[in-house]
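Is 2-oxoglutaric acid placement plausible here? Inputs below.
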Amino acid sequence: MAHSPSNYMEDKPGSINGTTAICATPEERIDKLKSTPSENSPIDLSKLDGPDHDRVAEEIVRTAETLGFFQVVNHGVPVELLESLKIAAHKFFGQPPEKKAAYRKGVSPSPLVTYGTSFAPEKEKALEWKDYVSMLYTNDSEALKVWPEECKDVALEYLRTSIKMVEKILKILMEKLGVTVEAAKIDALIGFKMVNMNFYPTCPNPELTVGVGRHSDMGTLTVLLQDEIGGLYVKVEENIDGKQKGEWLEIPPIPGALVINVGDTLQILSNGRYKSAEHRVRTTSEQSRVSIPVFTIPNTTEKIGPLRHLVERDGVALYREVVFGDYMKNFFGNAHEGKKSLDFARIN
Ligand SMILES: O=C(O)CCC(=O)C(=O)O
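Reply from A.M.:
I modeled the complex. Tokens:
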């Protein structure tokens, strides 16, 4: 590949200049023809408040136990806000490179805001074809003070409204594990919150690159808004509903819907019952794409391990107890490599 995206920010010597830096290795490239779109209908969360509560709750549990990925509608995040978020993301990334570079690691005026490219550029064999801005949440007034002007108001409203939905879904998933759900426990599991905005510039040769490499999320639940371009793929972990283990399903954009995925923390807590979802992103040559995840993550001091009664029931613990801060350090210390992040806690 001769050239990098026009507003790609990475300038480390020896990385973006070499052709290998942005060409994914053949086994990591995404063959669109070797994947099928997921046909799962989105789950209507408003039905949790009516007579269909149990059926909808069961559907959430079942998808968390199988694919670890589902889409939701009537989720409580206003649809107009979703549109404003996409506009704000384009506004942020459409700025001149030097404006965005002001938020790079090491120079950003606040440790809560980081602008970067790829996941762990110094570790990856090939850079991901994306830029991102990451906004860590501590409290409203700090967010409004230090998050980028172009997107702070909508990002904060998105965080507030999606957290309510996350709490609802998490409560259902924890209850199904037989856990009495105290507000404090839920708070600890999603104590650390972050809104990211991802920008995937158009790519002249999408078949040679990756937008985001294969990975699972480290946290509890992730909420994702994707625009109408498409390109998000999830790996089928076990044969189910006519889908074969190892197959990649495309999660099609659905207007007004949000994508939810299970993270490693829930897989560990549930002793493997809930599946953190391995996913990746393909770029396109036609239009740039934006996606906006909200990551909900345990507090760094929280101890994460399989729930005791599940270990008793299963007769074996699949994971050891880890302090979440250590898990996180290991996660960020390595390049994306599927669900390898879970090995840090796995008991062989
Ligand atoms: O862009 C997407 O659809 C997914 C992004 C993602 O996986 C991430 O930011 O970790």
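Short version: Residues 196, 198, 212, 224, 226, 232, 279, 281, 291, 293 surround 2-oxoglutaric acid (CB under 6 Å).
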